[in-house]
TrEMBL record:
GO terms for cellular component: cytoplasm. Belongs to the Orn/Lys/Arg decarboxylase class-II family. GO terms for biological process: putrescine biosynthetic process from arginine, via ornithine. Residues 190-286 form the Orn/DAP/Arg decarboxylase 2 C-terminal domain. GO terms for molecular function: catalytic activity. Pfam families: Orn_Arg_deC_N (PF02784), Orn_DAP_Arg_deC (PF00278). Residues 225-236 have a biased composition (Pro residues). PANTHER family: ANTIZYME INHIBITOR 2 (PTHR11482:SF4), ARGININE/DIAMINOPIMELATE/ORNITHINE DECARBOXYLASE (PTHR11482). InterPro entries: Ala_racemase/Decarboxylase_C (IPR009006), De-COase2_C (IPR022643), De-COase2_CS (IPR022657), De-COase2_N (IPR022644), Orn/DAP/Arg_de-COase (IPR000183), Orn_de-COase (IPR002433), PLP-binding_barrel (IPR029066). Residues 2-188 form the Orn/DAP/Arg decarboxylase 2 N-terminal domain. Residues 202-260 are annotated as: Disordered. It comes from Ardeotis kori. This is AZIN2 inhibitor.
Length: 359
């Protein structure tokens, strides 16, 4: 409800909102109906019956199970199989629910480009079934999960090429099917850097069974999100930083604030000997890092400070027609951190863009 209200408050019309959750509360379905939101998704008979009873005017997409690669994270899967599509479409016909297309979502965590192509092919078969039953299948939702970092197993450009090739083959231009996607992760992953402080530490003796000489680097005050099929989160360092002989690197482990096994951040990191109060920076934590409220007993949501590189700040000034500040101007003004005069290296923030006019 809160998400629908928020997007409508900023002017998004109801016919542009897709209530894509595969598990919807009846109260939320009725709320969406009252706000004029019609487009929804379903992937089983229970969900279909809820929509039929609570929102008879809804237009729905049939959610199909995506073809994930064997190396992808085996998270809880949503979507029906191709074998069950016809039965669900026939049930929708009996309950007078208007099916307008197909939806799939592979999720995140560095999936293979070929998995998207296979899912597009499956979606085309599901659309054919709907057309045979008299539905006008005019919408295909290819979901999200597109990588937003360079260390992904497949880069965004590779995925886009595979998806576009599959769409040209199975949903060519002029076929009457509109394609939509949800590239949220791609846009926001690199937008946030997490700063976490060391709140506790423990040194594990080399002779302790299973320690392998490992030193428990400490407990971070806020843990970065962990994606099982991506590399373990690792603190970043300044590109100009050189190893310090007085603080040699040691094999270290990092844990979240609760110290439980499931709060493991990373093992085997080569870090200098950290002390309580030291800070670590983790890049690329913009997706699903601060969106959910914290449960009882967990650390509160961390404060967010907006910053940009000096190069980007100069570009903004130029675009606004302002004269770039000189060194003398900068020394006479006490600028806050968020205005962008900080050095990007100290925050592990790379320039947002570099217009040729100021390079």
């Amino acid at each position: 409800q809160a998400e629908i209200a928020r997007v409508q408050d900023i002017g998004v019309p109801a016919d542009k909102i897709f209530y894509s959750s595969p598990c919807k509360q009846v109260a939320h379905i009725k709320y969406a109906a009252g706000r004029g939101v019609q487009l929804m998704a379903f992937d089983n008979e229970v969900e279909l019956s809820k929509v039929a009873r609570s929102h008879p005017r809804a237009r729905v997409l049939l959610g199909i199970a995506a073809e994930s690669s064997p190396s992808a994270h085996p998270s809880m899967a949503f979507g029906t199989t191709l074998e069950s599509c016809r039965r669900l479409l026939e049930t929708a016909k009996e309950q007078a629910v208007e099916v307008v297309g197909v939806s799939f979502r592979l999720g995140s965590c560095a999936l293979e480009p070929q998995a998207f192509a296979q899912s597009v092919a499956a979606a085309q078969l599901a659309c054919e079934m709907g057309t045979e039953l008299g539905y006008r299948m005019r919408l295909l939702d290819i979901g999200g999960g597109f990588p937003g970092t360079e260390d992904s197993r497949a880069r965004f450009e590779e995925m886009a090429a595979a998806i576009n090739s599959a769409l040209d083959l199975y949903f060519p231009a002029g076929c009457g099917v509109e394609i939509i996607a949800r590239p949220g992760r791609y846009y926001v992953t690199s937008a946030f850097t997490l700063a976490a402080s060391i709140t506790a530490r423990e040194e594990v003796p080399a002779e302790q069974p299973g320690s392998d000489g490992r030193w428990d680097g400490g407990t971070a005050g806020r843990a970065p999100p962990v994606c099982p099929s991506r590399p373990e989160p690792s603190p970043c360092s300044s590109p100009e930083e050189e190893p310090c002989p007085e603080r040699p690197s040691r094999s270290s482990s990092l844990r979240g604030p609760a110290g439980r096994a499931e709060d493991r951040i990373a093992d085997g990191l080569q870090l200098p000997e950290l002390q309580v109060g030291d800070w670590l920076l983790f890049e690329d934590v913009g997706a699903y890092a601060v969106t959910t409220p914290h449960p009882l007993g967990e650390p509160p949501r961390p404060p967010i400070t907006y910053a940009m590189s000096r190069l980007a700040w100069k570009a903004v000034q130029l675009f606004q027609g302002k004269r770039p500040q000189t060194e003398d101007d900068r020394e006479s003004v006490c600028a806050p951190l968020s205005c962008g005069w900080e050095m990007s290296e100290s925050l592990c923030v790379t320039p947002l863009f570099a217009p040729a006019s100021i390079i």
